[in-house]
Amino acid sequence: MAGGNFTGDEEDSISAINVTPLVDVCLVLLIIFMVTTPMIMKPSINVNLPKAGSSDQTAPTEFNVTITKEGQIYANGDKVSEGELREKATTLLAKKPDIQAMISADKDTPHGVVINAIDIIKSVGVKKFAISIEKK
User: Fold this and answer.
1) Closest Cα to residue 120, out of 95, 96, 88?
2) CB-based contact 93:124 (threshold 8 Å)
3) Distance, CA of 87 to CA of 109 (rounded, Å)
4) 3, 29, 35, 96, 134 from 88: Cα distances, Å
5) Phi and psi (nearest 5°) for 52?
6) For residue 29, which phi and psi values (nearest 5 degrees)?
7) Up-side HSE of residue 84: CA atoms within 13 Å toward CB?
8) 69: Cβ–Cβ under 8 A, 6 or more apart, which residues?
9) 65 φ, ψ (degrees, to nearest 5)
10) Spatial strand order in the sheet of 73-75
11) What are phi and psi for residue 9, nearest 5 degrees?
12) Which of 23, 41, 63, 70 has the greatest CB tally within 10 Å of its CB?
């Protein structure tokens, strides 16, 4: 019945499943995901964090401030000036009074730039902040 000659009581049946099309589809999907994943990922800011032996795990914050070694300030991924940092901190503080700021600064960033950013954030009224490090 399945093809070929049919003789009386002999029936040939197909007993194997062809998996080649399934493997082809899986490989094509794998290639598609490998190509599109880098496009989907959010670009990040390169910061070489200082290393320390003791660190606490903190929950993700709503206010992330990143300072590059060139002194550029990013608030939640957007490049901002000192005035814009103050405005953004004020806006976020109005939405959530107990907000915590996470400061991530490159280890080659001048100390004064980091202190200035912390001063701006504290002057707005943010009382809690943490400094991001890499564990040794």
Assistant:
1) 88
2) yes
3) 23
4) 74, 42, 36, 12, 26
5) -145, 150
6) -65, -40
7) 11
8) 47, 48, 106, 107, 108, 109
9) -115, 125
10) 78-80, 73-75, 63-67, 100-105, 128-131
11) -95, 0
12) 63
pLDDT tens, position by position, 73-97: 998 888 999 899 999 989 988 988 8
Q: Give the pLDDT confidence score for residue 30 in this predicted structure.
A: 96
Q: How far is residue 65's CA from residue 127's CA, in Å, rounded to a whole number?
A: 15
The CB-based long-range contact list for 48-51 (8 Å cut-off, 24+ gap) reads: 48/106, 48/107, 48/108, 49/104, 49/105, 49/106, 49/107, 49/132, 49/133, 49/134, 50/107, 50/133, 50/134, 51/133, 51/134, 51/135, 51/136
At 134, which helix (H) or strand (E)? strand 134-135
pTM as predicted: 0.56
Check pLDDT > 80 for residue 111: yes
CA 77 from centroid of its chain's CA atoms = 11
Q: Are 132 and 50 contacting, i.e. CB atoms less than 8 angstroms apart?
A: no
